[in-house]
C-alpha cells in the first residue's frame, strides 16, 4: 500500500520557484553605473528588471552585467535581452520589463529546466551592475526581481551569456572557429546577426556534423522548437528539441561554424553557454 503522507512530503515543494524583490544598493542614474547586491545561498532561475522613464528605442543604452565572485558571467544590453531572451522565445512583451530566463520552462524534464540555473553558495559575492547611458532622454528608475528555488548542495554548471563579433572577408562560405572552447564548455544556442546568411554548417574534427539552410532551419525553429526566428539572424539552437542537457553542443574537437553569406562584413553574435565547474557525480551501481 502506498504511504500517501510520505509521498506528498517528498513531492510537495520540490520545484516551486518563488520571487524576491530588490532595490539598488547604490543609486543608478542616467550617465552612471550602479548596482544591486544579491543575497546568495539559493538557486536563481530568472533575473528580471522593471525600468521606468525610458523608451523601447533606448533599450540598447541600458547595460546589464552580472558578476559572480568578481567575474562577469552575463553581459547584455536591453535590446539584446528583448530580441533574444524575449522575442525569439515568443514571450510576452511589456514596456520596461527586461527578463533573462536561465531556467527554460519548455524543456521536457526538471533536470533540463534547472540545468542552466545559477546555483549560488552562501560565501559567493553576486553583484548586478546596471548602466543607464547618456543617450536616455528621461529620468530612469529601476527595481529588480529574482525567481529562485532553494539552495543546491553543489554547483556543477555556471551559465554564461555574452555577445561579440567577428569579420568575414569574402562572400560565399567562410569558416569561423569558436573562440571559447574546451571540455568544460557547452553551447545552448548561438545567434548570428547579419543580413544575407544563407546557410550554416557545423564542423568538428574537420568533419561536417550538421548542415542547415536558412529557410529549413527557421521552419524547424518554429515547428519543432516553437520559437520565433528573428530578422537578419541565423539561430543555431541545439536544444530546440526540448532536451536541456542532452541537446548541448560540445565545443571540443575544433568546433567551427561555416557561414554561407551574400557579402563580406561583420557578423555580430550572441551565445548562451554552460561552463562545467565541477565533475558530475558517478552513479553508484553497487
Describe the structure.
- The protein has 286 residues and is mainly beta.
- The chain has 2 domains: 17-155, Jelly Rolls (Sandwich), CATH 2.60.120.730; 160-276, Jelly Rolls (Sandwich), CATH 2.60.120.
- It contains 4 helices and 18 strands.
- It has helices at residues 4-11, 78-87, 110-114, 214-223; strands spanning 18-22, 32-38, 43-52, 62-68, 71-77, 97-101, 118-119, 126-132, 141-149, 157-168, 172-177, 185-193, 197-204, 207-213, 233-237, 249-250, 256-261, 265-276.
- The strands form 4 sheets. Strands 1, 3, 6, 7 and 9 form a 5-stranded antiparallel beta sheet that branches. Strands 10, 12, 15, 16 and 18 form a 5-stranded antiparallel beta sheet that branches.
- The two termini are 27 Å apart.
Between the first and last Cα atoms, what is the distance in angstroms? Answer: 27 Å
Q: How many domains is the backbone divided into?
A: 2
- Note the beta-strand portion: 35-45%
Any idea of the CATH topology of the largest domain?
Jelly Rolls
CATH class of the largest domain reads: Mainly Beta
Give me the CATH architecture of the largest domain, please. Sandwich
Which spans of ≥5 residues are poorly predicted at pLDDT below 50? Answer: none
Rg over CA atoms: 20 Å
Structural class: mainly beta
The tally of helices reads 4
Estimate the mean pLDDT confidence: 92
Amino acid at each position: 500500500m502506498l504511504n500517501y503522507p510520505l509521498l506528498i512530503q517528498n513531492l510537495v515543494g520540490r520545484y516551486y520557484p518563488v520571487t524576491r524583490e530588490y532595490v539598488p544598493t547604490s543609486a543608478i542614474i542616467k550617465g552612471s553605473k550602479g548596482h544591486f547586491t544579491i543575497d546568495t545561498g539559493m538557486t536563481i532561475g530568472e533575473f528580471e528588471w522593471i525600468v521606468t522613464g525610458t523608451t523601447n528605442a533606448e533599450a540598447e543604452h541600458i547595460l546589464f552585467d552580472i558578476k559572480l565572485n568578481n567575474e562577469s558571467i552575463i553581459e547584455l544590453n536591453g535590446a539584446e535581452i528583448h530580441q533574444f531572451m524575449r522575442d525569439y522565445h515568443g514571450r510576452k512583451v511589456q514596456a520596461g520589463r527586461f527578463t533573462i530566463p536561465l531556467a527554460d520552462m519548455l524543456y521536457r524534464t526538471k533536470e533540463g529546466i534547472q540545468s542552466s540555473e545559477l546555483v549560488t553558495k552562501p560565501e559567493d559575492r553576486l553583484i548586478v551592475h546596471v548602466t543607464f547611458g547618456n543617450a536616455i532622454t528621461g529620468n530612469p528608475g529601476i527595481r529588480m526581481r529574482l525567481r529562485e528555488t532553494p539552495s543546491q548542495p553543489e554547483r556543477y554548471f555556471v551559465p554564461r551569456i555574452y555577445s561579440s563579433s567577428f569579420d568575414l572577408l569574402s562572400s560565399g562560405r567562410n569558416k569561423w572557429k569558436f573562440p571559447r572552447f574546451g571540455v568544460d564548455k557547452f553551447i545552448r544556442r548561438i545567434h548570428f546577426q547579419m543580413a544575407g546568411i544563407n546557410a550554416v554548417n557545423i564542423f568538428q574534427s574537420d568533419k561536417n556534423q550538421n548542415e542547415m539552410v536558412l529557410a529549413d532551419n527557421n521552419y524547424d525553429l518554429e515547428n519543432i522548437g516553437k520559437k520565433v526566428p528573428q530578422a537578419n539572424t541565423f539561430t543555431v539552437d541545439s536544444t530546440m528539441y526540448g532536451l536541456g542537457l542532452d541537446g548541448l553542443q560540445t565545443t571540443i574537437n575544433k568546433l567551427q561554424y561555416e557561414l554561407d553569406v551574400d557579402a563580406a562584413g561583420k557578423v555580430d553574435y550572441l551565445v548562451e553557454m554552460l561552463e562545467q565547474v565541477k565533475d558530475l557525480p558517478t552513479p553508484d551501481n553497487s
